[in-house]
Design brief:
InterPro entries: FtsL/DivIC (IPR007060). Keywords: Cell cycle, Cell division, Coiled coil, Membrane, Transmembrane, Transmembrane helix. One of its GO terms (biological process) is cell division. This is Cell division protein FtsL. It is a single chain. By secondary structure, the chain is mainly alpha-helical. The protein contains 2 helices and no strands. The radius of gyration is 41 Å and the shape is rod-shaped.
Length: about 100
């Protein structure tokens, strides 16, 4: 009778140890997967931040160009500026003026 009780006591810890080993293996696999997923997401985030910075630079350049064009449109609505463009770029003169060409 004593031997049967002792064999039952020794069998229970062996099964418990086996279950703990299996549980630790499952936890280790899960943690490995979680760490792998974390690092791949960090790499993807880094690439996304680089793309975001490039797009932000393009947006800033487009905004600056739009402001420059708006300023040019405002200037073109001014008669004095149009007169300056006509004399400088087109070579036009007003009545009573003579054009002097220096070569």
């Amino acid at each position: 009778m004593i031997t049967s009780i002792q064999s039952k006591k020794s069998a229970a810890p062996a099964g418990t140890k086996r279950r703990l080993k299996i549980w630790f293996c499952v936890i280790a696999l899960f943690m490995g997967w979680a760490i792998y997923t974390f690092f791949t997401q960090m790499a993807s985030q880094g690439q996304a931040e680089i793309k975001l910075a490039e797009v932000q630079g393009k947006i800033d350049a487009a905004t600056k160009q739009m402001k420059d064009l708006q300023l040019q449109v405002e200037r073109l609505n001014d008669k004095e500026y149009i007169g300056q463009l006509a004399t400088k770029e087109q070579g036009l003169v007003k009545r009573g003026e003579k054009q002097i060409v220096a070569e």
